[in-house]
Input
Amino acid sequence: MQAEIYVAASAAVFGTGVYGLILARHILRKLLALNLMGGGVFLLLITLGGGADGPPDPIPQAMVLTGIVIAVSATAFALAMLVRLYQETGRATLELEDDDQEGGGDG
Amino acid sequence: MGISLVIDVLLALGLVGLALQVVAGPSLFRSIVLFVVFGLVMALAWARLHAPDLAMAEAAIGAGITGALLLMTYRRLVELNPEKRGETYLGSRWLAAPVGVLTGVLVGLIGWAALQLPPGDTTAGTLARDALDETGVSNPVTGVLLVFRGYDTLLEMGVLLLAFLGARAVASGRAHSPGTSEVSEPALVGALLSLVVPLTILVGIYLLRAGGHAPGGAFQAGAVLAAGGVLLSLTGRLVPTDHTPLVQRLVLVLGLLVFSGMGLFMLFAGSAMLSLPGTWAIYLVETALMISIALPLALLFAQAPGLKGRGH
Output
């Protein structure tokens, strides 16, 4: 039962991340959404690797531990790029100037 | 049994609710803070899922260091352009909700299907557990990270170093001085730091040592040390330098050098690449990894090529 609960939670968190990624215009928000998606995947991996009737599988745990460090590295790099973008253009969105007012297209 | 199930349901609902607040909340600052809370609730979920190593890593790295990086960046953006502080930057795209729901359902179906699979007799996890006695460490996660999947850990250090180098490459030449240096600080800051920073180092070394037989390890220890560095640069005790001092350059690559050097040595000594000759080697590599994790994280937070003490 525990596994089903966390599988459902990981799916919902991942879906929320995708929703946020599309919805967000500010790059910081997009990064938050991407990190949420990562969290959902990590949760799914660990839930599937957690033996219900025995010790949990150490392989997914080690992989997710690696994943957490990679996630913070990638986020830090993206944040540095965001700061530079903001210094150069004064904007923290990925849209072209014309799209700025109307909330952008669907892409 | 009933109570623990209630806890699981509450944690799951908390995760989903916080995630929704993070993506749909009106204020960007609030979203960042709630993201940190999400990381902490996730740490509780890891503990419930029998993954204490992950719980510590999530609390220290996923919530702590990531949160500090996000807040620091938010502050820099506000400093660069104070008028835009209140903007929400939430678009309205009709595709967002259906796509989000559909991908969520897809992941749920994949997870549900994977749960129906019969458990395998010999998985990589059971093999790793059985071979754990030969490694000299009894924490299976540390064993997998250092002994059975050493390439992952080595390349992960490479990614961290690349992220730091990339962040330096895109950063503009203008030095960023945190505003705390000239402001007179409260009298208690110094006393607090002299208490907290030694404890941070102590906890870091303990986590490293404990990682062999209990939850902990180089990554958690490195994150705790990095948090000490974050604290010191927030309070102006460590100030950014224009160039990376030689010692810090060496520290940045120390983990990669020690791990790959040891791995190559074992290759030429007739063993497998990256196999470690004993428990002492595991702790040696872990110590180097810890230091080489802590420094780039602290430097990434300070958004500086190097750090030095305030007095120098």
